[in-house]
Design goal:
The protein is mostly beta strands. Helices cover 8% and strands 62% of the residues. It has a single domain, classed as Porin, CATH 2.40.160. The protein is built from 1 helix and 7 strands, in the order E-E-E-E-E-E-E-H.
Length: 105
């Protein structure tokens, strides 16, 4: 599954940022052999199931410290396999980590 989303920031406060998102969803699957219900060897079918859809949703970044943000996102996938997704995560500022490893820069 591959999601390509664009974000539009509605409100950017000091420690909180709200955004809407829209994008495309691509689902790729591998070919597989599927036997019939009877299980006869001559009744094997090739099955490949790909899908294409749209994503619509909203999310937020919440700054916990200068180095760490919390992210929360909810989106609905409009496709052959429509679904609602909620995700949460932690974002770490890697540039901040590299500056403290090499203090002369």
């Amino acid at each position: 599954m591959l999601d390509l989303n664009g974000h539009y920031v509605f409100n950017s406060l000091d420690r909180i940022e709200f955004y809407g998102l829209a994008g495309i969803d691509i689902l790729l699957s591998f070919k597989r052999d599927v036997s019939s219900i009877t299980g006869a060897p001559d009744e094997v079918f090739k099955e490949k199931d790909n899908g294409f859809g749209l994503n619509l949703g909203a999310g937020s970044y919440i700054m916990l410290t200068d180095q760490i943000d919390l992210s929360v996102e909810a989106k609905y996938l409009l496709s052959k396999y429509s679904q609602f997704m909620v995700s949460a995560g932690v974002l770490i500022n890697l540039q901040w980590l590299s500056r403290h490893e090499n203090p002369e820069f």
